[in-house]
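Task 17 of the worksheet. Students: predict the tertiary structure of the chain below and write it out as structure tokens. Keep your answer in the requested format; marks are given for formatting as well as content.
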Amino acid sequence: ILKQSIMKKITLLLIIFYSCCLLGQVKLTSTEYEYYDGTSWSSVNKTLHEYDANGNLITSTDIHKPNPTIDDWKTGGKELYAYNSDNKLIEQIYKGYNSDNSISDAYKSEFSYNALGNVIEFLDYEWINDQFVLDFKVEISYNSNNKISSGITHSWDGSDWFFETDESEKTTIIYNSSNQIESLLIDIWDGSD
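Model answer:
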């Protein structure tokens, strides 16, 4: 249960981060990380990025060297992105890989938009028994100034959405008269109305 709660919070933060990145995206083709062994630097990790013809990030692949002294690169994880005809992100898939290239963990998120192009819902899936299984969703509301006013999380039980005690939450954003965030309220559902 703790893992799901942390994953939900991390997913929401990643969504916000990726939304910001996608709106102001510069085409970064790779990122390289190096290790200093006391005498020299060695490349130990790289992230390779690919874009579609519209400039949308479509793939980020993390590769690493288990041993910095041997030039044997392994895929650690891969993120895939899909977009609608308005270049809005509609799907994000992450797959982490073991050393034998089997999938160690994975998740998928799907995004829905309103007529103004704002995300109004995202669905999150877990990787269970070699397939994606629906886990939870977040519904997002906007105020009259087109700013996010709240987000509500729901869990999935296999046939219906429900509020999960100590897991489901409602986040409300209060703005001041200058339309700047004044406060952020997080209510965690305790099982009562």
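Marker's comment: The first strand starts at residue 30 and ends at 36. The two ends are 22 Å apart (CA to CA).
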